[in-house]
TrEMBL record:
<dbReference type="InterPro" id="IPR004839">
    <property type="entry name" value="Aminotransferase_I/II_large"/>
</dbReference>
<dbReference type="InterPro" id="IPR015421">
    <property type="entry name" value="PyrdxlP-dep_Trfase_major"/>
</dbReference>
<keyword id="KW-0045">Antibiotic biosynthesis</keyword>
<dbReference type="InterPro" id="IPR001917">
    <property type="entry name" value="Aminotrans_II_pyridoxalP_BS"/>
</dbReference>
<comment type="similarity">
    <text>Belongs to the class-II pyridoxal-phosphate-dependent aminotransferase family.</text>
</comment>
<keyword id="KW-0663">Pyridoxal phosphate</keyword>
<dbReference type="GO" id="GO:0030170">
    <property type="term" value="F:pyridoxal phosphate binding"/>
</dbReference>
<dbReference type="InterPro" id="IPR015422">
    <property type="entry name" value="PyrdxlP-dep_Trfase_small"/>
</dbReference>
<keyword id="KW-0032">Aminotransferase</keyword>
<dbReference type="GO" id="GO:0008483">
    <property type="term" value="F:transaminase activity"/>
</dbReference>
<dbReference type="Pfam" id="PF00155">
    <property type="entry name" value="Aminotran_1_2"/>
</dbReference>
<dbReference type="InterPro" id="IPR015424">
    <property type="entry name" value="PyrdxlP-dep_Trfase"/>
</dbReference>
<dbReference type="GO" id="GO:0017000">
    <property type="term" value="P:antibiotic biosynthetic process"/>
</dbReference>
<dbReference type="InterPro" id="IPR050106">
    <property type="entry name" value="HistidinolP_aminotransfase"/>
</dbReference>
<protein>
    <submittedName>
        <fullName>Histidinol-phosphate aminotransferase</fullName>
    </submittedName>
</protein>
<feature type="domain" description="Aminotransferase class I/classII large">
    <location>
        <begin position="19"/>
        <end position="335"/>
    </location>
</feature>
<keyword id="KW-0808">Transferase</keyword>
Amino acid sequence: MTTAPEPRYARERRIGGITRLAANELPGDPPAPVRAAVLNNARINRYPDPAYAPLHNALAEQLRTSSEQIMLGAGSSSVLQRLIRVVCARPGDAVMWATPAFEAFSIFARQAGAVAQRVPTQADGSVDLEAMLAAVTAHTRMIILVNPHNPTGAVVHGDELRGFLDRVGEGVVVVLDEAYRDFCDDPRVTDGAELARARWSAGHHNVVVVRTFSKAYGLAGLRVGYGIAPAGLARQVRDAGVPREVGIQAEIAAVAALKARSAMRENVERIIGERARVLTELRRIGYAPGDSHGNFVWLPLAEDSGRFAEHCFADGVLVLDIAERGVRVSIGHPTDNDCFLRSAHTWVTGRVAV
């Protein structure tokens, strides 16, 4: 890597003694209307409505689908876990995803007794759709397609995705994991919910979409996610869950968040702006990150990833090390990002940035 002049960065802003940029959390609090809704309806002595009618109805209106096609869970992880358990129910059934990926996929496959089919991403971090198609076997029951991909931030464009779905057999359920969809500003990326509805209308019932309130909406601590699927599959997934899994405050916050989408978009635009700044600065220093469409950046450092993560931690910055592959760094407040950039600079130059 080439070196660059020493930059000037803001002083660090630490939480509990460390700058946390490893979990893709939204920096700062959720919008004021969401906080107020939770505080004004703190009925923590009551169980939530097991039907979750307010949230089901709000999501159905936003997604232009029926409430029977909606699945809720304690984060999108819960919905994904149950989907794998329901779809991969027979011995030998397999679930496929691109790797590196969200580590919980392996846990969910193991819990379901499913075979894990891991297909490496391409050198630029993009999902290798052709390799995934080639890896499909008679036992493949599900493909999880994360778009934008975590941890690389790469995206699959609409025309590529439609072509992929046309070639996947009807017996394979394709789950579009859109946890980071709100951070994507590439107009060529298709809205998964719109695509799913179109596929269902055309008689193709093997497309499912999962999303979360943990990322763009800033409700990670409340644990609420959702998905849409054909009504029969959605019912099976709901039946496989723990009754009243989503807490009452989580439901109240999610309904309020859907009403405060303009405030959410303002937060997202700030993240997108900071992401562009961090990418520009990393490239100026001498790194080669690819474009990212999530609330994070990806550094493909290969065998240096562990040492780089340790270097950052020594500087008080926590990043996610994916061993021997790279490092994922969440976009935080500008001062958080400057703290990381200072550490990235000293890794290259060995000199302290001022």
